[in-house]
Write a structure and sequence with these properties.
Oligomer: homodimer
Largest sheet of chain A: 7 strands, mixed
Strand content of chain A: 25-35%
Number of strands of chain A: 20
Radius of gyration of chain A: 22 Å
Largest interface: A-B, 49 and 47 residues
Distance between the termini of chain A: 14 Å
Helix content of chain A: 25-40%
């Protein structure tokens, strides 16, 4: 970077007028302050959790592209009724990208920062869709020798979400768990974790092919929600595992309620005495994604000991505290080529990330269609 | 009771064949064991929470009565698809009635039991729809001089549910609360408690008349869900009170979701910075009733920090422990003629409780239609 004083950073702006504008800003490359390092970003994934910031509630069927190279812009319309819910971000160009990896090219004089100089590190903290990222040494995770930036880019969101599920299960007193849209990258990771840790896992998928895929990687319970005997199969798997907590990526529709109903049926099969309010065992569904944006429908034929709620990684990490976070992070860094490996369909530059043809693909949030950005790709 | 050796007890039986059978059993009057007392039951309410045990999921439009006096029976059909959910109670005649009050007519030799002899006491523990009830002295609450059994009958379910709401609000870190179907007996109690304790309360009712009723007893916020400006009025009341927890007696439909949406709008009005996942303040709706048995519909335009779940008095009391329970009980006993007063439309005998004409009325669970049973009414 000799002579380079500026770098590109992707920005997402939603105007009060209801227009989304994606652009690349040229920003000065900062000098590391105390305990900080400067990282040349070489790999940063486009996760479903990034799309909320990147595209917001914009209607991408109205998207248009203009300009070229660093001057490129992509715009789209945001429905007016969605604006009150994002009032706090309106008219501010927001940087994007939760996680990434790259090479530490400058470091402050502190021991912790100096130890990272020249190393390949994984990072968390936002604004990763940029050529350079300044951050605290403690927000970097040094990678084992031989692990590349591309391999370390998706080290945080999916791996810690999957670990967060099994940790939440334990902390809330459940002994096995259910996962939906379970053939996803995250779902496959969760299967590997549960196999390593001896945790019962009921995978719910949306096709017989996805069920076969999961059985192929060792899943014991993979139930297809399109099967005519879905609820019977799910109840059987719940009886066998004793799962009373579910993590649901789908959200909309009847699935969350079906899971609670089947949990109640499974509990009643083994109940010793009648409770007029249904089973007294708490049954929980956490919704962490929204693949189906339709309303959640809860029929409530599962007594009173139930809960449905949002689940998000950041508050979970805040709750468990730093030492526990470090333990989980180190587990991930050690197994980035195995348990926590991610797969990408395409690697794009920052400019290419604004291409309509690419947005159409990564904006779909489809299982198995994951993009990686290399902001320094030329 | 000289010479009397048996008493009547109401029983609810649901047979595997799908038939509900209500009847009166003649049971021997037991002698108090260690620390026990025998109470002649003089008043016991029919609460919505009793109807689940009494009528179960029976279709009361199919109800038939046969026999007379103590031999009277009422039967009705239970839909076949409901049977798996009540498997544990099938073919067992269940006693009914959560709470009641009466006179202690026999007591064991223990000091605590002897102290209650001749006293009017309130009771909790089930099987109250009976002429006599044997129970532990500690499950009795002696009433202040001048408080009648009828005044003390509804001392537990409604008063402790209302107190349980404000206690849950405090324990879960909220500063004000929302209540639906708020013109109910319970809702009016909750208004009095919140006024006494200086707690912000947003009442949601289903007519302008009910809103006026609540304002008449001092409610500051009474919002009518049938009003054209309901969501605006609710949001305003949420901004003013800061309420982020709701207790919902209705359950089905869109109301729980509307409350969460308005809470999110209220929080966003005062938000200092944009969070891509919506407000980070946890928003909670507890469903404790089911006036509308339709599915709950959750639209999820309120970020990720939300929860919806069942709420029930018994697990709440188990969680807070005995000393805290005693504190709440004593608060109730002191104010049974004021804050915790209940009103009844009719007092019936055990036989009359099986009359179809009465079941039609109390089975409706309508606001302001509450029945009291006097099992010793002749």
């Amino acid at each position: 970077m000799s002579g380079t004083t500026k770098g590109l950073q992707l920005r997402s702006l939603i105007k009060k007028s209801g227009e989304l504008e994606l652009s690349l800003a040229e920003v000065p490359i900062p000098e590391p302050g105390p305990d900080q390092v400067l990282v040349k970003v070489e790999a940063t994934p486009i996760n479903p959790s990034d799309l909320g910031m990147l595209l917001g509630p914009a209607d991408m069927s109205t998207a248009k592209a203009l300009g070229d190279g660093a001057a490129k812009q992509t715009t789209a319309k945001v429905p007016e009724q969605a604006l009150p819910f994002i009032a706090a971000r309106l008219d501010q160009a927001m940087p994007v990208g939760n996680e990434g990896a790259g090479t530490v090219i400058k470091a402050s004089s502190s021991e912790a920062a100096q130890a990272l100089l020249g190393k390949t590190v994984s990072m968390i903290g936002g604004a990763m869709y940029a050529q350079y990222r300044l951050l605290k040494a403690t927000d970097c995770q040094p990678l084992p020798a031989g692990t590349t930036a591309a391999e370390g880019a998706s080290w945080f969101v999916n791996p810690l979400t999957a670990l967060g599920m099994t940790e939440t299960m334990k902390r809330e007193g459940h002994k096995a768990l259910v996962h939906t849209a379970a053939a996803s990258n995250l779902g496959q990771m969760l299967n590997k974790i549960c196999q390593e840790d001896g945790i019962g896992l009921v995978n719910i998928v949306r096709s017989a092919e996805q069920a076969r895929l999961l059985r192929g990687i060792g899943a014991k319970h993979a139930v297809d929600s399109t099967s005519a005997t879905f609820t019977e199969e799910l109840t059987m798997a719940l009886v066998e595992t004793g799962a009373t907590i579910a993590f649901d990526a789908i959200g909309g529709g009847k699935l969350a309620s079906q899971i609670l109903t089947c949990m109640e049926m499974a509990l009643n099969k083994t109940a010793k005495e009648y409770s007029r309010y249904g089973s007294t065992t708490h049954k929980q569904v956490y919704i962490y994604g929204s693949l189906n944006t339709a309303p959640v429908e809860l029929v409530r034929n599962y007594g009173m000991a139930w809960g449905v709620g949002g689940w998000l990684l950041t508050p979970f990490l805040q709750k468990i505290g730093r030492p526990e976070q470090v333990r989980l992070r180190e587990r991930v860094a050690k197994s980035l080529k195995t348990t926590f490996a991610s797969h990408y369909t395409k690697t794009v530059s920052l400019t290419e990330a604004l291409d309509l043809a690419n947005i159409v693909v990564y904006g779909k949030r489809a299982t198995g269609e994951k993009y990686l950005i290399n902001p320094n790709k030329t």
